[in-house]
Predict the 3D structure of the following.
Amino acid sequence: MNALLPILLIAPLISLLVGFSFSNKDEKAIYTTSVLGVLLNFVILIILLIVYIYNGFEHMRFAGPILYHSSETDLGLSLFLDGYGLAYMLIATFLTGIIVVFSKNYIHREKGYKRFFNNIKFFYSGLMLVLLADNLETLFVGWEVLGVTSFFLIGFYRERYLPVKNALKVVSLYRVADIALLLAIWVTHHYFGRSISFFDFEGFQGSESHILNETFYQFAIPGFILIAAIVKSAQFPFSSWLPRAMEGPTTSSAIFYGSLSVHIGVFLMIRTAPFWEENITFRILIGVIGLITCIMATLTSRVQSSIKTQIAYSSIAQIGFMFIEVALGFYWFAIFHFASNAFFRSYQLLLSPSVLGYRIHEQLFHFVPPEPQSTNGFWSKIKLSIYILSIKEFNLDTFMYRFLWNPLKKTGNAFRFISTKSLLFMTVPLFIVGLYTVYNQEILPEPLLHYLPEAYAGLGLVLILKSFVERDSVLSSWLLILMNQLYLSLAFGFNEEFDFNQIHIFLSGIILAAALGVWIILRLKKKGEDVSLNQFQGHSFEYPRLAFLFVIACLAMAGFPITPTFIGEDLMLGHIHENQFPLLLLMVLNLILDGLVIFRIYSRLFLGKHKKGYHEFANRSS
Amino acid sequence: METTDILFNEGHTLEHLSHYLPSQLTLKDFVHHNSLHSFQDKEFFDGIFSASKIFGIQVTFNLNEYRKLHGQGRIRMDIIDRVIVQQKGTLNLQKYRQKMLSGSYKHEYNPRIGRLREKWKDQYKVNLDDLVQPLLFRIIGSYLDQGIAIWHFPFEDKGLINAVKILEENSMTSFFKTKRAKTLLFSQDLSIEKLLEILVGNASYYENYLFDQQFAHKGWSGLVAAIEGTPETLFYRKKIHLKDFILLELLMEIDALNKTLGKHWKPLAVGYQDHAESYFAKVEQEELQDILKLWQEAFEWDYYDEVLSGVGHLAKTNRIPPREKQSFQALFCVDDRECSLRRHLEYVDPKCETLGAPGFYGAAIYFQPYKAQFYEKNCPVTITPKHLIKEIEVSKERGHEVLHSKQSHTFFKGFLYAMALGLWSGFRMIRDLFSPKMRPDIADAFSHMDINGKLKVENSDPNEKENGLQVGYQIEEMADIVESLLKGVGLVDHFTDLVYVVAHGSSSANNPHHGAHDCGACSGRPGAVNARVFTFMANHSKVRVILETKGIIIPDKTQFIPAMHDTASDEIGFYDEEILFSENERQHRLHRKTFENALDINAKERARRFASIDISKDIKHIRNEIKKRSVSYFEPRPELGHGSNALCHVGSREKIKGLFLDRRAFLQSYDYRTDPDGEVLLQVLSPLPAVCGGINLEYYFSRMDIEKMGAGTKLPHNVMGLIGVANSSDGDLRPGLPLQMIENHDPVRLLMMVEHRPEIVLKTIKSSKEMYDWFDKGWLHLLAISPEDGNLYHFQDGAFVLYEPISKILETDDILKVIETAEEMKTNHIIDTTKENIPVHIYPDKN
């Protein structure tokens, strides 16, 4: 029966691949394929449920193919099924099925009918992978799929400004969660010396000897995981992205941000519970975050005048509560709470347009003018202060800008004195020199060699910062990303444990992706199109196919899972030592920025208002 | 170049702004109107092209699209030639042909609005929209909110600026980030002018700046201005002025600039020349506009000509309406959606007679449902009613829907709700998906007024007034209304035993725009109340006594019966059936069947445009599917509303029987024989331009620019404060019609065809300046069908000119077959959608 597990992944993926072959007008075929994929999974899940109960709740494991094998790491695609995962999968499949059927007529004749269903299926496959993953690496692959599909579904109406802006905003935050998870993987590698399997995992035991003291690991591993979880579950202080994610058709908002996607943090905490269960301080931390979220989200939800935002915040409040439940160790209760909340909120969202007629009618008969607000006394003062704060969502929306993006932008602008072109000219020879010395490290003195990784990572950071603030030439910006990636590989090259093979995997992905990107940019240029980065160009209106190809190039550049870049990225990170914090910090910043810059380039080139005004397009504020 | 002479006059500018901002009220009061009403003082094309240049909106298709339409035969060559000859003279035929078909023109998108404020970005690299709008929308949304927030905006009775002041005074936190804005807020001489001095610094640019600023979010600004003008559109009254809203935004702009730039900024227009060019200075039209105009005219006339061939053909056959031995008479709303139902009724029962009049049936009323705290206006929006009709008894209570409970958004109750109802919602999703049924949160046309409820129609005491409105009608008033309506539609003799007065409404689920599907002549509400009020009057014995003195003799056995047609679910409900005499009741039972059969066919005809229904299936199955659509949460197109409307016929139904118009015509009954001098005609025509023309033009502009004039696709819509919809949590309100309503619409102006001698029609329209302008300035087309000889006269340049159609007439023996085999659109691009319309056909009429 364990052999059924991979089918849960394969079915939606096949349904996705088949989906690509239809044209947007074949609504019936697109729909039928989608329904079949989800339905098959539902049937399998029911069978698995019966088997699971029959076997006395025995967990199942499926050892998948090893993607990469070396002496120190095995990167395998193994699957694992337990009660929590099974419950989550059943709910997810049920809801996805409902949404697919609901969308059949709802999305009818929408320009992106096919795009919508493909995204739903891709999202669903990613979700299945997260829920079935037997190790953090596999889980990470699914995790990234969720992030990327979110970007596309939030920016579903890609010709309008706000969806694109918000898609970028959300995906940048997700990037933080992704990197946090990657770091968690990095620490676990060092702690255990292998990739851990959830199937037989029992917490901090059987570790190898390690350099730093035990407490570091006991907080770092679950700490990074917790960051990933609270970002994805919109917990304090990362809450404000959720209402802004509701840009797509109501159905996709309902399934992603009303239910399945936003609860995944709760699942992640339960899944990784052995890391922190014994750690009371950490449990308190989880609970406190949950509690703060409850209070903040409840207050914000009370003052919202837009229905979807209100539902979003009430949902966040409930998820905060789930975090408390998880902290207390009531996992099954949290899962039940998740199920109820997911059904309830997604249905509220689906029916949210009805609220206008319904409540106006209610008002017609039962309107009671509210009591006037008093201004006397200290309590009134507190109340009014909280009112203003809640309207401003406790400033959480500006928080990310203020503390992360703006400083990065400022730093990038500090390098304004070098022009992008000359930077490119300077760095190419430097890279060649570097490349030569990597292969011939003996020619360099030992002490110098020691600092080279940091030096190259630092230079890489300058390159990517420069790319981040580049406003004109998309080609320069794109090539800077490539150079950045090459420098990073040099940084690894100079780091002690050096494996040519791994770098080659990494580079092969990058160079192919970069070449594809360059080809697309040149093609656009040749057609006489504006390809500067100073505004949204909206080329997907006229070149939807190029847009799709560019997405693939971007994903590969960003080290998206299933691309060779990713495997390389993951492997190389493993080579940073536990005590190399400066190098680690540089790498992390590099990786975060990489993602941001790549998504930014894609958005600027292909999304947003189409610049040629010969057809209708929406106002910026709509 | 025109320039603004007086540098800045606040009152004048505010008035100017309100004039140009969208005037749509809250969604509960959805009334169709000309979206470019502010340009209606200009000739149509001059008006729309000016608007296009000023606001950057699309007002026609682009050249390429017209050429494609020509390529596929939708715009025929001989029509193009005719339009050119008519507008440019025969000599220029070749030249303009070439220009239209292959001339190359550069399209430039460079709207006037927005140019000045754009400079902040150029000069200082700040995007004020991004910095100000999210919080501004949140504040105004919360301030106007009718009942989404649990914790409402305090001090809403003090006015926006005062409320903000009190809030700021009494709290430890602030909406503002800098001290300067806060100090300005509390300064004694806070005024728009003073703030503009800080921001713009050059008085001749103030007005332009305000236009830039307010049109950057015309949805919210328009609503604020509209509420200021019509405060009763909110049940929960809020004191709001556009002025306050602007003050707040200006303060927030200063705040944002100070926060991002510190002290390093100067007023925007300081070094500018002293005379700003007014945005509304005359727009010089270029040749491209001229060519687009020709194309649009050709696009319109290609269709009109087809219609007129048929109309002319039938007019010449000179049939004499028989009005004898009829089975029943049924009075319908002029609405284009009733056009097909009437056709099918006449098909099922060739002896019945159908008539059309605006669906408020002369009863201009406010309606107060039982125990309701507010009144609802049920008449054309231009009329201010003096009468109140109260519902005094109901038979059932309204249901509740826990999913929309506010409590579910509080913390503890939210937890209990989710826990208790979570799994239940899962089951309900399945049920609503596979067998949808009516629920309390679905807009139900039949719940507007209780179907068995009682109305107080007759006024018992002239002094009985509520809020200045007379409760019910007095006998004389009733007689006047009945007389003028009956005379208007020409029903003054040969009454059948049963006369149905059929109102219409529309049920739809999950649809904030449901008001746009209801009766346009009843301010976007179901019209059953009006039908009941009218029949009460017409059945009243004292009224009939008065009518006799005016020459209208209604036999004693004649009874008027109110009914309502649900245009989405294709169901009909009859009211007051208990008053029927037993003989009439027997007849009524038969007629009910007739109605049901006609509705079956009607459902089938409508279903041809719905991809989800297979119209080759059994007719009862189709009817059932149609009904399901009206209660399906997942169906964004419960019906297609007025999509494809294009015509308005004012005249005898007999004259156009047998002409298949594909649900595209408003049908007003009028009998020129009872009105040889056109005395009644003015009163018959007067509501039509605003009601039918309003609908037509709103569809026109929403179709031409679905993003800026329409509301875009409705799928991502987010309900804001129960007053409107926006796209995002931080987005602007979106007035206009959503894509799903207009996608099948061919944007052509309304062609009004009046059956009377041209000189009488001319005299009539000239007697009202307002009406004359509609036709003279070309916002509607007008045509007179001369009853004597069947000739057609087109109104142009102030006179009626003989029009000779050139299209071939299509004939068919089986119109139902034509409907069944009609093409279905592949995409919602105009190239495809226009193919879905069935050409005008003549089919044998059973009479």
Q: What stands out?
A: The two ends of chain B are 64 Å apart (CA to CA). The mean pLDDT of chain B is 93. The first strand of chain B starts at residue 329 and ends at 333.
